[in-house]
Amino acid sequence: MHQLRGYQKEIIAEIEAAIAQGYRRIMLQLPTGAGKTRCFVELAKRHRAKPYAGNISNCLIVAHRQELIKQAVNALESEMGSRWEIGIIKSQVEGHPYRAIQVASIQTLIKRVFPKAGLVIIDEAHHATADIYQRVIHHPRYEEAVILGVTATPERTDGRGFRDSFDILIKSPTVRELTVQRYLCPYKLYAYTRDRIDTSYVKTQAGDYQLNQLAEAVMDSEVRADLVKTWQKQALGKRTVVFAVNVQLSKDYAALYNESSGYRAEHIDGKTHKDEREAILERFKNGTTTILCNCNIVTEGFDLPEMECVQIVRPTQSRSFWLQMVGRSLRISEGKTHAIILDHTDNYKRLGLPDREYDWSLDSRIRPPKFIPDNPVGNSLRGEREPREIEHLEGELVEIYSNSQELENTDMVKIRIDKVEYEATSSLADVICKILDRIDEVEDLLIEKEEELDAALGRADGYEEAIEEIAQELKQLRNDAKKIDALKLSITELTEKLKLAEAALEEKEEQLDAAVGRADGYEEAINEIIDELNQLREDAKAMADEDDEREKQLEAAIGRADGYEEAIKSISAELNQLRKEAKKMADDEEDEDIPKSKKKKGFVTFKKGEKMDSDTIAEVLQRPEVQEFIGEFLEDEIDSRLDAFARASELLEAYGISLEDAGITTRMDSITTIRTAITKLNPKNDISDRSDEYVINRFDTYCEIVAERVEYEKSISK
User: Which of 25, 257, 305, 642 has the fewest Cβ atoms surrounding its Cβ within 10 A?
Assistant: First the structure.
């Protein structure tokens, strides 16, 4: 946890006062290196504890570069003492949308759902007029929120103001005031005595030089040959950042330093991979790399107090861009006496020195006058310097201005104490600043001690109440002691009873274990019986199914038997009829209707011309061998008819046709029965002219098909 500087406390107090007056869109101007991140982290911390303007306590911090996001997250974690309140909204980073403080990349934020927030902080707010920032500032979700924009340079190259986005501008102490108070580092600026880069033909685009033409102008100049030589003379071995017009020139400068300076140089730009970018910056911070060449990367969000030199090879018309570049070197660090600014352009003439006082405004851009600054004592603090004659040195940078000497020699300087400016000698100002710093430290320490004392007093009050409670409890314990003595005898008795009860309990437990063992055996037996019962049920069901099938088969057999019985009766009747007719033929004598002339007594005429008398016929029929032959013939005929009748019945029944429907009567002979059955089964096939052998073969085929189907159905049922 860091202590706030005096001017930082004043700035935060001004912001809170503006919020109390009803302002909800506030811009803060704070020079590079003055601790803007520290200020807005403190505001976020206070808002979390007691929300501003009655809003919710959630905070949203928006930035446009990963270095700024990382810087804000590290500062929040250091101040809050925990990372569990902080979420990050950035591509390829795991989000935690329900955390109270969100640090967001503006490029990612506009593609997602905006988080709720009562305080919205925009870092590097001179970009706030861009459309992507306008979508955040004017979003309905943040209509009642406090929006704070923070920047070192509230000015844009296109000349647009900030009135559409912010209602009030709060200014900080100037670079010179902070330098006097030793919060920023003195500097020495080296430049050419005459312009070496001809920008007269370079067009202006969006308020600054057109980059392609500017790059050509730089390459056409002799600046490249002076870079390493100038650095070796004025800043040898010092960690240096080189600002180039474009990526290719930055790479060329890095290669030039690696070839001829004797020190390691590296290049970085916006397309450098994230991991490589972090590794390069880390090597520069730990001193492995001495020279860092870049294109539009280290102008914002880069914080390295140990950096001592900046080399400017990037002409610009943007005062904001110029101050961002030179401001990188003005942070204070132990052992660092002054910063070195190597300006190979005419930026300092066109835009002014880094510690010039500017009249920042939300309305419009204020252009500084073109001049070559001198170093007079009396006017140095007001930024009104007259040109001076400087010796012309061909091809070398010369010292144009040094505020470190001015600070040492100036008789009177300005000091701000509680928002009031005083004039004092330089040495006295140093003493006063140190005293003020010490006063701030003592005040902070006093506040901490007061908080500790309040906590101690609170604890003391708690201890007093606890002592009273303990006294009451002690009194109660003494009263209870007497009762305890009386209870001791009862306890002894109860102990004996408890032992007896425990013994009885052990015995019951043994009995219970035995019963449980038996119960387990019973349970297994019951399970086996249940299994057997289920099996019996399944067997009984199967037997019942078989009985039903057999009953059906029996009923069918009985039906067939009834048919056979009727057939036998019919055939027997026919046989008796035949016997009667045969006997009648044997007994008949001549027919009375035949004329006597044609009659021959005692003879019967047959179709074949064979003649026998009736007596002979009767005698022949009475012969045993004839009687046996007639009996066998009739029995064969009966068997043949019964077999054909039974087989036809089964065949037709298999296709659901009854004998009656088929037109089969018991008086048909076997071949007629078979022909009738086949005709019924296949009416389209005319078999009237077919031979008996063909009909019988066709009938046998039908019967075999039915038999196979019956066997198949039996196997399926099983």
Answer: 305
Which residues have C-beta within 8 Å of that of residue 72, sequence separation ≥ 6?
A: 37, 41, 61, 63, 103, 123
- Cα separation values, 468 from 458, 462, 463, 464, 479, Å: 16, 10, 9, 6, 17
Indicate the DSSP class of residue 58. Answer: -
Helices marked H in 588-601:
none
Residue carrying the six token digits 């920023």? 184
Q: Scan for tokens 């289920």, then name that residue.
A: 534
- Which region holds residue 182: left if phi is over 0, alpha if psi is between -120 and 50, else beta? left
Write the DSSP string, 641-710.
HHHHHHHHHHHHHHTT--HHHHT--TTS-HHHHHHHHHHHH-TTS--TTS-HHHHHHHHHHHHHHHHHHH
Sheet holding 309-312, edge to edge: 265-268, 291-294, 240-243, 309-312, 339-343, 187-191, 398-402
**CB 187 within 8 Å of CB 402:** yes
Of 134, 139, 87, 89, which is closest to residue 111 (Cα–Cα)? 89
| DSSP track, 387-408 | -------TT--EEEEEHHHHHH
Three-state SS letters, 529-558: HHHHHHHHHHHHHHHHHHHHHHHHHHHHHH
- For residues 356 and 348, what is the distance between their CA atoms, to the nearest angstrom? 11
Q: Are residues 238 and 346 in the same domain?
A: yes
| Residue corresponding to tokens 């979003």 | 139
Total domains, the chain: 3
Same domain, 271 and 389: yes
**CA angle (175, 181, 185) in 5-degree steps:** 55
Domain boundary among 410, 433, 454: 410
Which domain, by its residues, includes 683? 623-717
Model pLDDT, residue 216: 94
Q: What is the CATH number of the domain that holds 327?
A: 3.40.50.300
Q: What is the CA radius of gyration of the chain?
A: 62
Bridge partners for 266 per DSSP: 292
- Chain-centroid distance of CA 222 in Å reads 55
- How far apart are alpha carbons 649 and 670 in whole angstroms? 12
The reply to whether 149 falls in a domain is: yes
Q: Mind spelling out the 3-state secondary structure of 162-177?
A: CCCCCCEEEECCCHHH
The secondary structure element, H or E, covering residue 468 is helix 426-587
Residue 586 near residue 621 (C-beta atoms within 8 A): yes
Structural element, H or E, at residue 522? helix 426-587
**Which residues contact residue 677 at a Cβ distance below 8 angstroms, ignoring those fewer than 6 apart?**
648, 651, 652, 662, 664, 699
The answer to whether residues 280 and 266 touch, using CB atoms and an 8 Å cutoff, is yes
- Within its chain, how far is the Cα of 100 from the centroid? 21
Q: What's the rounded Cα separation, in Å, for the pair 629 and 222?
A: 150
Residue/partner pairs of 424-428 with CB below 8 Å, 24 or more apart:
426/180
Name beta bridge partners: 63.
105
The single residue listed with the structure tokens 């001076």 is: 388
Q: Give the end of a domain, one of 358, 377, 410.
A: 410
Regarding whether 99 and 202 lie in a shared domain, the answer is no
Q: What is the pLDDT of residue 557?
A: 59
pLDDT means per 10 residues, the chain with 718 residues, are 86 95 95 91 93 92 91 89 83 90 95 94 93 94 95 85 93 92 92 87 90 93 90 95 95 95 93 90 93 88 86 93 92 91 91 88 63 37 33 57 59 49 53 65 71 75 78 82 78 84 86 81 79 79 75 66 63 68 59 43 42 60 64 65 78 79 75 82 79 82 80 76
Report how far apart, in Å, the C-alpha atoms of 322 and of each of 197, 221, 341, 578, 590 are: 16, 20, 12, 145, 162
Torsion-angle region of residue 265: left (phi > 0), alpha (psi -120 to 50) or beta? beta
**CA 24 to CA 60: how far, in whole Å?**
15
Separation between Cα atoms, residue 44 and residue 143, nearest integer Å: 18
